[in-house]
Specification:
Helices cover about 35% and strands about 25% of the residues. The chain is of the alpha+beta class. The strands form two sheets. The protein has an eight-stranded mixed β-sheet. The protein has a two-stranded antiparallel ribbon with strand order 7-8.
Length: about 220
C-alpha cells in the first residue's frame, strides 16, 4: 500500500511539473505573437517617427544615415574592441543582457538564423551584441553564455553603463534596472530590436523585434549586392 501511495504521489507531482511547463510555454508563445503583431505605435522609434500604419512592415530606413561615435568596449575574450575595427563590413547590432529570459535569447537566435541564411556572404556582415548590464556581464560571463548557446560568429561586447549609453544615444536606446531585489537579482528594461550599420559605421536601418530572419537576410543581401 505504501508503495502504491508513493507511486500515486510521484505521478501527481510529475503531472504537475508537466502542466506547469506547458502553461509556461503557452504564455511565452502568446507573448511572442503579441509582440510580432504590435503596430508601429508600440515601437521605440527613438529619433524618427513612423507614418502610415498600413505601410509599416517592421523595418524602417534611416534617411539620411546617422554617424555613430567611435567607442571602446571589451569583447567576450576580454580584448579591447572598437567600432572602427569593423570598418568595411555591415554591422547588425542589438542590445541586451545575459539574464534576459525572453527577448534577448530570441533576438540572438534570429541573428544566428540570419547568418546561416546569408551563406557565403555571412562574413561580410558583423553580428554584434552589446550588453546593457556591464555590472554582471563580464567578458567571461559573455563567453560562457555564447559558447553554451552555440552563438558562433556573433561578437559580444561589454563595458561601463556610461559608455553603453553614449553608444546607444544616437540610436534612441534606453535601458534601466527594474525590480532590483538584491545585488545580483534584477532585470533590465531596454529597447528591443536591431540596428543595421553600413560599411562606414552609419546607422541605415531599424528592425522591429520579431521581424522574421528571412526578411532581415533579404535586406542584407540587397545591401551587399
Amino acid at each position: 500500500m505504501k508503495s502504491k501511495r508513493k507511486s500515486e504521489s510521484f505521478a501527481r507531482l510529475l503531472y504537475g511539473i508537466i502542466a506547469g511547463l506547458l502553461i509556461g510555454i503557452s504564455a511565452l508563445t502568446i507573448y511572442i505573437v503579441q509582440v510580432q503583431l504590435r503596430g508601429p505605435d508600440a515601437v521605440d522609434t527613438g529619433h524618427f517617427s513612423v507614418e502610415g500604419k498600413h505601410t509599416f512592415d517592421g523595418a524602417i530606413r534611416i534617411e539620411p544615415p546617422i554617424d555613430l561615435p567611435e567607442f571602446a568596449l571589451s569583447n567576450q575574450y576580454g580584448q579591447p574592441f572598437k567600432l572602427s575595427d569593423l570598418r568595411g563590413r555591415y554591422i547588425l547590432l542589438t542590445f541586451g543582457f545575459t539574464n534576459c529570459p525572453d527577448i534577448c535569447p530570441l533576438t540572438l537566435g534570429d541573428f544566428r538564423q540570419v547568418r546561416q541564411l546569408l551563406g557565403v556572404h555571412a562574413d561580410e556582415v558583423a553580428f554584434v551584441f552589446i550588453s546593457v548590464d556591464g555590472r554582471r556581464d563580464s567578458p567571461s560571463v559573455l563567453r560562457r553564455y555564447f559558447e553554451f548557446r552555440q552563438l558562433d560568429g556573433i561578437i559580444a561586447l561589454t563595458g561601463s553603463e556610461e559608455t553603453v549609453r553614449a553608444i546607444g544615444a544616437p540610436l534612441g536606446l534606453s535601458f534601466e534596472v527594474s525590480g532590483e531585489a538584491s545585488a545580483d537579482a534584477y532585470a533590465v528594461n531596454h529597447t528591443a530590436g536591431s540596428f543595421l550599420l553600413d560599411a562606414r559605421g552609419r546607422w541605415i536601418m531599424r528592425y522591429q523585434f520579431g521581424l522574421p530572419p528571412e526578411r532581415i537576410a533579404a535586406e542584407l543581401r540587397k545591401q551587399l549586392m
